[in-house]
Amino acid sequence: MTKVYRVFATAFLFLSILNTVTSQEKNEKEKDSADTSSLKKYSELLKEGTLKEGLFSVLKVKNDYYFEIPDSLFGREFLIVNKISRVPLQLNEAGLNKGMEFENKVITFQKDTLLGKVWVRTSVPMVTSPEHDAITLSVHNNFSSSILEAFDIKSRNEEKSSFLIKVNKVFDGKEKSFNDVFSNTGLGGAAKPALSYIEAVKTFPGNIMVKSELTTSISEGGAGLPVTIGVACNIVLLPESPMEPRFMDKRIGYFTKKRWYFNDEQHAMKERELITRWRLEPRPEDQARYLRGELVEPRQPIVFYIDPATPEKWRSYIRQGVLDWQEAFEQAGFKNAVIAKEPTEQEPDFDIDDVRYSVITYAASPKSNAMGPSVVDPRSGEILEADIIWWHNVMTSLHSWMRVQTGAIDSKARKNVFDDKHMGEAVRFVSSHEVGHTFGLKHNMGASYAFEVDSLRSPTFTTRMGGTAPSIMDYARYNYVAQPGDGVTAITPRIGIYDKYAIQWGYTWYPSKDKETAKLKKLVEAHTDDPLYFYGEQQSYKNVVDPRSQSEDLGNDAVKAGRYGIENLKRVLDNVVRWTYEEGDTYYRTGKLYMAVIGQWQLYNNHVLNNVGGIYLNNTVHGDHKTSYVPVPYTKQEAAVKYLNEQVFTLPEWLFVNDVLTRTYPLKDSPLGPYEYSPYTMARELQYDVFYNLFRDDRLLRLLEAAVYSDKKTFGVDDLFRSTRDHVFAGTMKGKSLSTFERMAQKNYVDVLIVDLLKLFEKTSKKSLQIPASLQLPTLCNQVVNSETAVRNINYTSIKRVSEVTSVKKGELYTLLQLLQKKKNKGDRTTRMHYLDLMGRIEEAINN
Hints:
Blueprint: H1 2-29, E1 30-31, E2 40-41, H2 42-48, E3 50-52, E4 57-61, E5 64-70, E6 77-86, H3 89-93, E7 101-112, E8 117-123, E9 127-128, H4 135-142, E10 146-157, E11 162-166, H5 181-184, E12 197-203, E13 207-218, E14 225-237, E15 256-261, E16 270-275, H6 287-291, E17 302-306, H7 312-323, H8 326-331, E18 338-341, E19 358-363, E20 370-371, E21 374-377, E22 382-391, H9 394-406, H10 420-438, H11 459-465, H12 497-507, H13 513-525, H14 558-574, H15 576-579, H16 588-609, E23 615-617, E24 629-631, H17 634-649, H18 653-656, E25 667-668, E26 675-676, H19 679-694, H20 697-709, H21 717-728, H22 730-733, H23 740-758, H24 804-823, H25 829-847
Parallel strand pairs: 1-7, 2-10, 9-15, 17-18, 17-19, 19-22
Antiparallel strand pairs: 3-4, 4-5, 5-11, 6-7, 6-14, 7-8, 8-10, 10-11, 12-13, 13-14, 15-16, 20-22, 21-22, 23-24, 25-26
Protein name: Metalloprotease
GO molecular function, one term: metallopeptidase activity
Organism: Sinomicrobium oceani
């Protein structure tokens, strides 16, 4: 009897929850009343205007726009996708261009005829619970939607059971609810309705697009500047049945969306991350063939359109960059999965701003970049549409990279202007990289570590492996390791082994979830020990912990790669004037190329530096018996410090004392024109930057911690200070007179320690440290590294007053003071004055 009672009680509970939830959903969908007598007759409105049928039929009466929403779409989820369609010069120059998304949100329309309203609600759909679980009631109450906007019901179409609302206010600048372009682009303020208007409204079976011109006034201490932005607001109907999600595996790099799961059986909420990917599925009639291993075409391929504004000579290269991914999708079982095309006359409705079209948008702009964002259904991770923004000036970055990285081995890369074929191959590379992002792939900065450095000098190896890394999603760039005479020609990154594997993992179709989970696990486990399949998370360039996963590096030995790279940089610098020669021209190009050489040298320095105190962060799971945190081996760290001593702390005179300086200083562009750096100033600042980064607290803490927890010989803080001191103060120890550059290195070393010591009690009265301004070297791809995109967030900080780091830095100053007191009367007068200066600085810092 008790058992029977429990069954009825459970059934009653389920019915109660179901009724409550159903009632809630019904209330959210509609609050109905039969009284429509106060509404304007639909037939009268129709006589006054013109009607376009689509997802919502759109009625235009003079300058007013009405959405006709059918009953069937109340309560359905829509995604608002806002894009830039036009910008004035001021915003273009700031990097805001056509095609860029600036705001997405999920909305539902709720009918309330009792109050004569249509409420628009917005929510963050990241919470899931089983329909009949008790906790679902709490989920509904604790993750409810918010009212975003309200419209008065103006009329009812009895025949189609639909309601009309006037929507002007959310598109013409009066309200920010659907489209807050000025806040979301950082301009602030609000649109001026008198200077803003709706330009056009288009409706299609799955979406509506409203184009507007919105104007504001920006004032920065002077007269107000009018700024008008063209925006396209797309309202997209989301699938009634979301795509089956695939969950993140941290050993493969996909962009993700967070999802929270609640159920009655839990002891705690479960958080998982859905990867973002397109819905690629075989047609029902092809599923059996697909499961037998035959290649089949997907039910819906991924189609990219080439912007008609793209210069014709680059279109084929951009298109080929897209189609290069076909082979990767074949590894996932699909043929012709990716299509790249130009719009034709058979597509009269084509509009770049329409979310039905994934477009590689070409932006006329001084900005030198490209990026590949996607529009994602947050409920499932399904990529609905993608927009690659291709800035015209990205070719200036490509030109600079190829010239400075491959000019020594490739005569085609030495010209002021490359021939179209050579530049076209570079355009193809960037196209492939950005398209990879639109498939959901993140940067894999660890891919290039799979290759032995000397293998990059082998024509056979580089041709067989397809360039510089196993993944085009790395920032591997061009082959700066290969030397003249090696005969290496495969110097451009290509889609590699890791990319094909990642697409296979993300896009292979499985008939059931259980089979999918098992197969995906097996696929990853089959490749975890192969370095060609290694995934290295992108890190902030300011805080690199794992030196295997760095931007712009090549090979598995930064010291060896840096030395090869420097030999090539010397060759480039020897030819800087000749390669940039233009009869009657200024030395602007020469100065720019000279700056690129210096920037590349500093890049190598940072690659090497990050091995000191580095930790290999392995993506481990239970059962694989791998070590999660492995200090960089002693010999690698020792070699890294030796490199820095030889290539940085002994300032390279080939780079900063040479014949080029009789013609031009290194220069970079600025808003005020070319900005020239005196070589001494630049040398001092860049050397200081390396010193400062080498002795950062978190780096020293990692060295100290490794000595505590590692059972192997580790490179320690004493090794670091001794190696650096013995080199920087070698002349002092021998009682020699010091050169200008030797004195510079000693001042930089001492100042880094002093500045840090003065921060011990946060002396805010002291001037804060000024790190040198960026060299503004070419970059690519706006994929931001932050806490939401990074898988690994590791804390290496300390309370400075009680940290061992403070003791060792202060101890090093005492050691230097004793050495200087002993040698203060050695050397020439300039050297002795230098010693007195350093002693005074150290004593003041210690006493304070």
